[in-house]
Amino acid sequence: MHYKVNSDLLKDSFAVPAIIADKHLRLAGGEQIKVLLLILRNSGKSLSVGEIAKALKYTESDVEDCLQYWILTGVITETESESEAPKKYIPKAEAEKKPSAPPAPAAPVIEYSRPGQEEIAVRVSESKEIADLFSELQVIMGKTIGYDGQCTFLLLHDRFGLPPEVIYMLADYCVKAGKPGYSYIEAVGKSWAEAEIDTIDKAAEKIASLDETDKFWKRFILAAGLNNPKPTQKQIAYIEKWVSKQGMSFDLIFTAYEEMAEHTGKLSFAYMDKIIDTWYAAGYKTKQAVEEAKKIKKEVKTAGGDSTASYNLGSYAADNITNKPKYKRKKK
Predict the structure, then answer these.
(1) Angle at the Cα of 240 from the Cα atoms of 282 and 294, rounded to 5 degrees
(2) DSSP letter at 229?
(3) Where are the alpha helices (DSSP H) in 86-199?
(4) Cβ-contact 158, 96 below 8 angstroms
(5) Over the stretch 86-104, which tens digit does the pLDDT of each residue have?
(6) Distances from the Cα of 143 to the Cαs of 15, 123, 138, 170, 177, in angstroms?
(7) Dihedral (C-alpha) 165, 166, 171, 176: value to the nearest 10 degrees?
(8) Which end of the chain is less packed: N or C, by CB atoms within 10 Å?
């Protein structure tokens, strides 16, 4: 079956650039198309964000995000001129190109800035990979990504060197974890790049580790009577170290928490880490092993022997912790 427009309706029509149908029907979202059609319908007029939002019953924030897409792709332009030219954005691949001539001994350090709207528009127009990246990420994020989102994802790709497939996995993980904010995604992406998590296999392994961390955290805050819904990036790093790298049991880690609660007035993962490192060095990986070491230490001390045998955490705490108020756990 074939379809065509009712010719009677073409008597009252307006122009739509061919590039919209040829390229942007695939890349743009429904909300973006509606915003553009309204602007094209009112060609010759200068519509404000508020007028567009009222006509389409969108929020002004959503309209601004939609407009950013068309501005960055060069389909529409803003009437106000920029008061200050943005800093030059240099993609990582270009910045790291080796010059043909030997570099000078004191080569200037390249200062990376966040890409401006013009730079993003150029990257989208010159690279199908970037255009497809933004399009797919809109599906993953469940919304139109405006300048902040495009800037974040372009930095992850161009500056930090993460390939599109890894960025997809990163964004999907953050959305499912309930942390879809661009600043959080950028922070996690930067940490992945620094750890050279740049393949699908490495990303899958990292996400599996993070999932274990999430399970651990839910169990931990329930046992401790805390109400922190999500761990910080620093706390996540500690948990991954204890669970994935050192192989410590939950009961042992919680015992370290209780030791910490006896000697400090605040929740301190750094303090817990010192305790756990001491146990790890001594070969203790379970709560039972620590309790047996405590028992032996007590028996030796009672017999008048060397109180430092086998278990030396008590002396460590006495030497390094000042008299601070007791840490009181919240009631379950």
Answers:
(1) 25
(2) S
(3) 92-95, 117-126, 128-141, 147-154, 164-176, 182-194
(4) no
(5) 444 555 555 555 555 555 5
(6) 28, 21, 5, 16, 16
(7) 100
(8) N
